[in-house]
Amino acid sequence: MEEREFGRSGQHASVIGLGTWQLGADWGDVDDKDAHEVLEAAAESGVTFFDTADVYGDGRSEQTIAAFLLGRPDLHVLVATKMGRRLDQIPENYVLDNFRAWNDRSRRNLGVDRIDLVQLHCPPTSVYSSDEVYDALDTLVEEGRIAAYGVSVETCDEALTAIARPNVASVQIILNPFRMKPLREVLPAAQRAGVGIIARVPLASGLLSGKYTKDTVFAANDHRSYNRHGEAFDQGETFSGVDFATGVEAAAEFAALAPEGFTPAQLALAWVVQQPGVTTVIPGARSADQAHANAAVAKLPALSQDTLDAIRDLYERRIKEQVESRW
Predict the structure, then answer these.
(1) How many CB atoms lie within 10 A of CB 305?
(2) What is the sign, positive or negative, of the torsion defined by CA atoms of 38, 251, 321, 196?
(3) Residue 262, CB-side half-sphere exposure with 13 Å CA sphere
(4) pLDDT tens-digit profile of 230-255?
(5) Which residues, 6 or more positions from 282, have their beta carbon under 8 angstroms from its beta carbon?
(6) Is the pLDDT score of 51 beyond 80?
(7) Among 67, 35, 61, which Cα is nearest to 121's?
(8) CA nearest 176: which of 266, 252, 246?
(9) What does the DSSP 8-state code read for residue 56?
(10) Running DSSP on this structure, what letter comes out for residue 25?
């Protein structure tokens, strides 16, 4: 599989990565066997980038990755985790002592002395502008705890603030055919600065798979049930902030645009991969079949300009008004 570089850090990631939120919590139940099979399927398909966080299942996702990689010493996988959401979301909690404590826990969970990439996990907006925060992150690098650091953001403005910092290696941001605003300024700015872009929520929480109807019911412990209006965390993380009924209708139109040989989900991933400036896209998977299908996108042909134009038109007509003013 093609690998792309995080310019500032010199690290590389497969263009299709794996998001492992599903292997921890908030997407219904995924047992240990299924989680292992997802990781195995991704790895055997050429995926070399796993994205996790210390709060996914209170560390379960990190521990699952560690157990898998322990049994596969032949693999070279860049593992990125996140930190910052173990305490109340106030800027005062983003300090070096907490960073060290969170980092110690993640290193234990992952079974490593040094973590490849650590990202701030969508902190309060003012954190992205704090000199003290970046000084603390630089200290983690100097101490050998982490190889590089980045940020995960909710808004384009937050991304641009972080990109301006000289040692930020990556920005993780929601990017998909229902969330196009980052294409205007964020991706070009990242390219100029040599900052990697990790595209998350590429299927709009599954909407873009085309499998859901207005009557679809999700498990009570699935964020697609309990966070549709931002009750638990930022609304943009669930269905990309799009109203579910609107999203289902637009997703049906999107599915009809899939070229021969593409599923709707693969069309969405291919669209992301084709955007200049994207380093890796991190779809999640609940089964080995989904992991294989996601990785297969790397071998599909490029989308035609007609298809790209039709996707843009759908966004402009059905989605843009709901999301661009907020994120």
Answers:
(1) 8
(2) positive
(3) 27
(4) 999 999 999 999 999 999 999 999 99
(5) 17, 18, 19, 49, 51, 172, 198, 199, 200, 202
(6) yes
(7) 61
(8) 266
(9) G
(10) S
Specify the pLDDT at position 27: 60
Report the Cα–Cα distance between both ends of the chain, in Å, rounded: 31
Which amino acid is located at 306 in the chain?
D
Question: In the numeric block, which tokens belong to residue 315?
Answer: 């966004």
Strand partners, 11: 6
Nearest to 81 by CA among 146, 174, 23: 146
Q: Looking at the DSSP assignment, which residues form a beta bridge with residue 3?
A: 14
Tell me the three state secondary structure of residue 108: helix
The predicted structure's pLDDT at residue 208 = 97
Angle between helices 305-314 and 244-255 (to 10 degrees): 160
* Residue 126 β-bridge partners: none
* DSSP bridge partners of 50: 18, 79
Q: How far is Cα 140 from Cα 242, in angstroms, rounded to an integer?
A: 37
**Is 282:51 a contact under the CB 8 Å cutoff?**
yes
Integer CA distances (angstroms), 99 to 126, 130, 280, in order: 17, 14, 26
Distance CA 224, CA 169 (A): 31
